[in-house]
Design a protein that fits this description.
The structure is a single chain. The chain is globular, with a radius of gyration of 15 Å. It starts with a strand and ends with a helix. Helix 1 packs across helix 5. The chain has one domain. Helix content is 32%, strand content 20%. By secondary structure, the chain is an alpha+beta fold. Strands 1-7-5-6-4 form a 5-stranded antiparallel sheet. Strands 2-3 form a two-stranded antiparallel sheet.
Length: 161
Amino acid sequence: MESNALMLDVLRGLQALPPLTPLLSDILDAGFVIKDGCYFVAALMPDSTNVSLSSFPDRTGYECFINSIHVEDYDDKNPVGQAIQSIMHMFDSWRFFNSKHTLVAIISVDDLSVVVKFHVKRSAERWLGVDFSAYADPVMSIDSSEPMDASTIVGVVTGAK
């Protein structure tokens, strides 16, 4: 897990993780679609769109554009908790669907929104820069090869191992 200090402050403020909302669960349970070597959450992939792989510099950009959830639209009381639950749920689905590739999840927080994005980990592509401290807003990245549960998040935040 990588994050900036601002995100650690946000995570420290979490009381408890809420149950995943049914609407988010439905989105995340819809499965995956593979198109142009990209992996998309099926419920987030529009039937028709004017964007394609050629609209982006790489596959990671395309995946992050499509695989993007504004969590506050589904829970405005605890969107960060929902974001973490969404990632854990998605990683469970992903590991069942595809054990060959690693999925990366990103949470970004600002005054108005909490956004989760997903993309496949590729050696020559990144959605976020390497210097997380350069971000003005809270941000974190975690991948599906890392253990992730509520105790992992608490351990990272408190420095416990």
